[in-house]
Amino acid sequence: MAVKVNHSKCIGCAGCVGVCPVLALTLEENKLSCDASKCIDCGACIKICPFGALSKGDSK
Ligand code: SF4
Ligand code: SF4
């Protein structure tokens, strides 16, 4: 699974990167990406993002 990143909302603050328990989130040149092979869909990053840039992915 993986969270979806809305890149028009994400400002690259990195706030979500540290809360991911499986280190699935990485920020490179202000662009956040989620490693679908690591993400366990716990939702922690979705809750922490102050800009509502993350949402649940719809694929398994
Ligand atoms: S907390 Fe939100 S705005 Fe900050 S890097 Fe993560 S997705 Fe982007
Ligand atoms: S949903 Fe959980 S496991 Fe997936 S990227 Fe967000 S914090 Fe990490």
Question: Your description of this structure?
Answer:
- The protein has 1 helix and 4 strands.
- With 60 residues, the chain is mainly β.
- The longest helix has 5 residues, at 44-48.
- It has a two-stranded antiparallel sheet. A two-stranded antiparallel ribbon has the order 2-3.
- The radius of gyration is 10 Å and the shape is globular.
- It has one helix at 44-48, and strands at residues 3-5, 25-28, 31-34, 54-56.
- The chain has a single domain (3-56), classed as Alpha-Beta Plaits.
- One iron/sulfur cluster (SF4) binds at residues 10-16, 32, 48-49, 51, 53-54.
What layout of secondary structure does this protein have?
Layout: E1 3-5, E2 25-28, E3 31-34, H1 44-48, E4 54-56
Antiparallel strand pairs: 1-4, 2-3
The protein binds iron/sulfur cluster (2 copies).
Brief write-up:
With 60 residues, the protein is mainly beta. The chain has one helix at residues 44-48; strands at 3-5, 25-28, 31-34, 54-56. The chain has one domain: Alpha-Beta Plaits (2-Layer Sandwich), CATH 3.30.70.20.
